[in-house]
């Protein structure tokens, strides 16, 4: 295990320092023109006509998660990130685009302005994911393995959902699943326990802190409807990585029986400084020397240079980018809400620990 940690630490150091040269040799391209406003790119489908939910509702748990180093079949692709996410800023951008926020530091337009396919905004997949895959090259497969061992999951409760292909509006709630203690059967009867820290009232398992009051289903695609803030925690190589996502949009394609979903997408904005604070905890746990100092600050400055949007999801050429767009994929299967799990022990920040005498 010790050798494994040293190997991970070395890999992460290489990946982080490689970010320093990202785009540094590029020169700014010739001026371009702003993209037409009508180029909306990839966005969730709009709501159908009003039709309130009349069914018993469904609960779904994520059973596969795709971070962006593979396509949805699991095949590794260097540009797989281009297909995960949505067009969050309403622009289809490339290195020549204008009207966007200012790149941070020495970041070049080609490294942060160029979108994925159909205007998808996903600078996390393009510029930051390599930190995670340095620790675990098969990151998506390992996260999915943890889910299928019952360690954790992301849960969506869609109240009022029946057999029809369209409903509007529906009240939906997001939960985080705690450890089941065993592998789920995925037969629709798994009762997945809930992380109490994501509930407003631990005695009420329906009191999620994340509620989509205007979600809807159109042509069997569920859409969250309203943007929200959520903390997505994933376990990679034995470490928990918290992704604080603001302006989050979620969508998934339900099967005809509404017993599962595929082509799911979670997209939003990672406030850059919050992301750095979370990554610092993981990096510090692996390699304490990177908690502070000039090397650490250089690394984190280069993560800042992955910023491609403002935290509110907009663009403003007068302001410096302070958010990193993200898009990840998922599939889900039907489950039942379980009991509320016991409180987790307080999290510790390894970079706040006093220096060792040794």
Topology at a glance:
Elements (H helix, E strand, L loop, with lengths): L1 H17 L39 E9 L42 H4 L10 H13 L3 H10 L4 E6 L8 E11 L13 E4 L15 E9 L2 E3 L4 E9 L2 E16 L5 E12 H15 L7 H11 L18 E12 L1 E5 L18
Parallel strand pairs: 4-11
Antiparallel strand pairs: 1-2, 1-10, 2-3, 3-5, 5-6, 6-8, 7-8, 8-9, 9-10
Helix pairs in contact: 1-3
Can you describe this structure?
- This protein is α+β, with helices and mostly antiparallel strands and 358 residues long.
- The protein has one domain (57-342).
- The chain is built from six helices and eleven strands.
- It has helices at 2-18, 109-112, 123-135, 139-148, 272-286, 294-304; strands at residues 58-66, 153-158, 167-177, 191-194, 210-218, 221-223, 228-236, 239-254, 260-271, 323-334, 336-340.
- The chain has an eight-stranded antiparallel barrel with strand order 1-2-3-5-6-8-9-10. Strands 4-11 form a two-stranded parallel sheet.
- A hairpin with a 2-residue loop joins β5 (210-218) and β6.
- α1 packs antiparallel against α3 (123-135).
- The longest helix has 17 residues, at 2-18.
- The two termini are 21 Å apart.
């Amino acid at each position: 295990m010790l050798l494994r940690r040293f190997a991970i630490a070395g890999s992460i150091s290489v990946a982080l320092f490689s970010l320093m040269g990202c785009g540094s040799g590029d020169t700014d391209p010739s001026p371009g023109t702003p993209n037409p406003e009508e180029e909306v790119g990839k966005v969730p489908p709009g709501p159908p006509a009003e039709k309130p939910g009349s069914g018993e509702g469904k609960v779904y748990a994520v059973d596969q998660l795709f971070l962006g180093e593979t396509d949805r079949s699991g095949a590794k692709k260097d540009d797989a990130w281009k297909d995960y996410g949505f067009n969050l800023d309403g622009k289809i951008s490339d290195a020549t685009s204008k009207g966007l926020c200012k790149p941070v530091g020495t970041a070049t337009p080609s490294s942060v302005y160029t979108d994925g396919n159909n205007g998808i905004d996903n600078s996390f997949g393009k510029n930051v994911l390599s930190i995670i895959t340095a620790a675990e090259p098969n990151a998506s497969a390992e996260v999915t393995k943890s889910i299928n061992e019952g360690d954790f999951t992301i849960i969506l409760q869609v109240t009022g959902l029946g057999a029809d292909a369209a409903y509007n509006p529906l009240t939906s709630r997001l939960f985080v699943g705690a450890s089941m203690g065993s592998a789920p059967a995925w037969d629709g009867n798994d009762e997945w326990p809930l992380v109490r820290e994501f509930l407003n009232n631990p005695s009420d398992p329906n009191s999620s802190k994340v509620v989509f009051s205007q979600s809807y289903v159109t042509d069997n695609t569920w859409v969250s409807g309203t943007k929200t803030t959520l903390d997505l925690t994933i376990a990679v190589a034995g470490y928990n990585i918290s992704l604080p996502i603001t302006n989050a949009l979620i969508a998934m394609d339900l099967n005809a029986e509404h017993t599962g979903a595929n082509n799911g997408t979670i997209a939003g904005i990672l406030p850059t400084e919050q992301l750095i604070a979370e990554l610092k905890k993981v990096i510090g746990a692996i390699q304490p020397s990177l908690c502070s100092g000039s090397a650490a600050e250089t690394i984190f400055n280069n993560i800042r240079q992955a910023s491609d949007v403002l935290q509110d999801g907009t663009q403003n050429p007068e302001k410096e980018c302070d958010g990193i767009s993200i898009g990840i994929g998922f599939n889900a299967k039907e489950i039942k809400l379980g009991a509320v799990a016991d409180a987790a022990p307080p999290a510790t920040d390894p970079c706040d620990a006093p220096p060792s005498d040794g």
